[in-house]
Amino acid sequence: DIQNYISRHKLQPIATGTGMRYQVMKDGAGTLIQPGQRVSMEYVLNNIMGDVIYSSDNEGVKIVEAGCGDVEAGLDEAILHLHEGDVAKVIIPSHLGYGLQGDHKSIPPYSTLIYTLKIIAVK
Fold first, then answer.
1. Backbone angles phi, psi at 4, to 5 degrees
2. pLDDT 10s per residue in the chain (123 long)?
3. 121: burial class by Cβ within 10 Å (0-12, 13-18, 19+)?
4. Where are the beta strands (DSSP E) in 1-123?
5. Calpha distance 29→88 (Å, rounded)
6. Residue 75, helix vs strand vs coil
């Protein structure tokens, strides 16, 4: 499913050893995000079929401490590859997302997650 998604959207993401994939769509001017930094981001979270699950338009800006496990493991990993101002597409396989449980709201079990992120501030 992930490879099909990548082909359909003509992406060329970087794959990490965990299976998370990311592609910077627009380079920011900031420095590389470091563990422990507070990161604010706008986002849209889609399922692999393209349906919007959550977004900062509805849920507000997401603020996390980088590398500290505040969010899904795949998103936490992806943030450490990005810079302030970057816009990126992040593909998170289910084992790095919500796995066999889902989030008990809108994300079903075994869901691949697709984030479009814009890193708006790093402190």
1. -60, -45
2. 999 999 999 999 999 999 999 999 999 989 999 999 999 999 999 999 999 999 999 999 999 999 999 899 999 999 999 999 999 999 999 999 999 999 999 999 999 999 999 999 999
3. middle
4. 14-15, 21-26, 38-47, 52-55, 62-65, 87-92, 113-122
5. 14
6. helix
